[in-house]
Amino acid sequence: MPIHAHLSQSNYYLIVLLGHKLIALPFMSTIELVDPELRDALAQPLPPLTAESLTQRRANALELAAAVPKPNLPDIATDEIYIESAFGATPIRVLTYRPVTSNNPLPVIVHIHGGGFVMGAPEMKDVENRLFASELRCAIYSVDHRLAPESPHPAPVEDIYSVFAWLHANADRLGLDPARIGIKGESGGGGFAAGAALYARDRQGPKFAFQHLIYPMIDDRTAVRKDLHPYVGEFVWTQANTISAGVRCSAKSRARPTSRLMRPLHEQRMCLACRRPTFRSAVLISSSKKT
Q1: In this structure, is residue 246 part of a structural domain?
Q2: Are 252 and 149 in contact (CB under 8 A)?
Q3: 62-101 per-position pLDDT tens digit
Q4: How far apart are CA 259 and CA 269, in angstroms?
């Protein structure tokens, strides 16, 4: 029987993130604070994120994501393309989703997958991206950016920016609206999305229309502070994982391990109080009015 056959949707997707099978739930003093529907998925604490465990963690996540049935959406065309890097790196693999027909230029979501900066792939959100493209009537380009530790910062952000710049430059040919290209990411992908938006701003070229950041990995305090609440990072993603991911993603930096990557993300957090907010509504995607 497939591992996901007896799981609810929310339980299954947590298992995909965890990358391990279910066993009997051990006693845990704070487990009663977790939604009962999710407790089985937390049955066994994950081993620390290390160089030795990373390869298997990557493989497990992709295997489980591939087991999710794909919806039958004849109105959506999917493809796999490769886009040249603006920085001379290897071409960037991108999964694309778009309506088969459209009377007007399409709005765009540049999607960045999660994985704590060190794992993951666009396939992890394949089903969700198909559904979003159909419901929102937009094009989605999901970026298979390079990962740490093989390719530390700024490699992933450069890949993301390269795809954005290419989309903006080729919008007319692709039938896209260059004024409505936004960026979306979850977890580590949310952190990279925020960093890419700041990167685009600093290059003084085209800007993203909006950011849709889902539980984004943008707060360096969980990696550099010791006075955190004891419940922070107890399940799924621990402080040790955050430190490990930050160190691996900034491995070639001479600065403090997490500082080079987290500095623009710290700025992203501070921008919430700016006169022109960095976070903008994703409603722009489904609106026919340009901003």
Answers
A1: yes
A2: no
A3: 998 899 999 999 999 999 999 999 999 999 999 999 999 9
A4: 14
Selection from 69, 82, 83 nearest residue 9 by Cα: 69
Is residue 61 domain-shared with residue 175, that is, in the same domain? no
145 plus 95 within the same structural domain: yes
CA angle 166, 139, 181 (to 5 degrees): 55
- Give me the sign of the Cα torsion angle 93, 97, 103, 107: negative
**Residues 164 and 217 grouped into a single domain:** yes
pLDDT per position as a tens digit, 184-241: 999 999 999 999 999 999 998 899 999 999 989 887 776 667 777 777 777 776 666 6
- Give the integer Cα–Cα distance in Å for 139 and 130: 10
Tell whether 87 and 225 lie within a shared domain: yes
Q: How many structural domains compose the chain?
A: 2
Place of tokens 């929102």: 136
Same domain, 99 and 13: no
pTM: 0.74
Q: Give the domain range for residue 183.
A: 76-286
Report the DSSP pairing between strands 139-144 and 211-214. unpaired
49 and 163 inside one domain: no
Q: Alpha helix locations (H) across the chain?
A: 9-18, 51-66, 126-136, 155-169, 171-174, 188-202, 221-224, 239-249, 259-270, 283-286
Indicate whether 291 belongs to any domain: no
- Both 39 and 102 in a single domain? no
**How many beta carbons lie within 10 A of that of residue 51, not counting itself?**
10
Q: Does residue 250 contact residue 152 with C-beta atoms inside 8 Å?
A: yes
